[in-house]
């Protein structure tokens, strides 16, 4: 009997989350997405990217929640028991991170920690794989070109928060044997990013 893999995408309403959902569906995954309850004044606005890709229907299961809610994220992971988690949720605008540094750390660092802790609490270390979306802002003012060996020099609360979550992922991988991959993303464009103003 074939087992369809189950994926949980946090930040599914963003540019990357929407395209990733479409990609995984085409590969036969059962896709669940986490949408933060207060991200948009009108919840339908938050689904605009998914709708543009024809995904606002029964093909994906959406959950309202917040990765900064440790209990809530643990309960959701326990319910879904995903094979893979793609943590794309983030407060992702550098200039906003200076205005709201505490929220930036809560979402981008504590949110990552809550996911990692949930997997250890639920003893899913050997089942669930995690992709952690890191960011080139961790390099800050380091001269280009940059790669995995470039020293980190973050120069914004966003970069600092992303660097903390990067190290948190590595720490839990080493300490608990979790399969955690840090993907360092640089700016990238698509029709979804150009069409909508929220990520």
Q: Could you write a compact summary of the structure shown?
A:
With 199 residues, the protein is an alpha/beta fold.
Outline the secondary-structure elements.
Elements lengths: L5 E5 L4 H12 L3 E7 L11 H5 L7 E6 L4 H11 L3 E4 L6 H6 L1 H21 L7 E7 L21 H20 L2 E7 L5 H5 L4
Helix pairs in contact: 3-5, 5-6
Give a verbal description of the structure.
The protein has 199 residues and is an alpha/beta fold. It contains 7 helices and 6 strands. Strands 3-2-1-4-5-6 form a 6-stranded parallel sheet, with helices on both faces. The chain is globular and about 45 Å long. The N and C termini lie far apart (38 Å).
CATH H-level superfamily = NAD(P)-binding Rossmann-like Domain
Strand content: 15-25%
- CATH level 1 class label: Alpha Beta
Domain count, please report it.
Answer: 1
Number of helices: 7
Task: Report the order of strands and helices.
Answer: EHEHEHEHHEHEH
What characteristic shape results from the CA principal axes? globular
Query: Percent range for helical residues?
Result: 40-55%
At CATH level 2, the architecture is: 3-Layer(aba) Sandwich
Question: N- to C-terminal separation?
Answer: 38 Å
- Report mean pLDDT, rounded to a whole number: 85
Main sheet characteristics: 6 strands, parallel
């Amino acid at each position: 009997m074939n087992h369809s893999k189950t994926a949980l995408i946090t930040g599914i309403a963003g540019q990357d989350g929407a395209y990733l959902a479409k990609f995984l569906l085409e590969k036969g995954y059962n896709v669940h997405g986490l949408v933060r309850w207060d991200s948009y004044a009108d919840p339908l606005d938050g689904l605009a990217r998914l709708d543009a890709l024809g995904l606002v229907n029964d093909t994906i299961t959406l959950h309202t929640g917040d990765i900064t809610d440790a209990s809530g994220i643990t309960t959701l992971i326990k319910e879904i028991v995903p094979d893979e988690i793609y943590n794309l949720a983030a407060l992702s605008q550098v200039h906003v991170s200076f205005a709201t540094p505490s929220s930036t750390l809560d979402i981008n660092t504590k949110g990552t920690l809550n996911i990692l802790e949930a997997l250890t609490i639920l003893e899913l270390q050997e089942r669930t794989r995690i992709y952690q979306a890191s960011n080139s802002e961790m390099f800050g003012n380091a001269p280009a070109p940059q790669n995995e060996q470039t020293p980190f020099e973050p120069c914004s609360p966003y970069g600092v928060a992303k660097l903390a979550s990067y190290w948190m992922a590595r720490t839990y991988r080493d300490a608990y044997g979790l399969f955690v991959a840090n993907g360092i993303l640089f700016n990238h464009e698509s029709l979804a990013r150009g069409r909508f103003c929220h990520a």
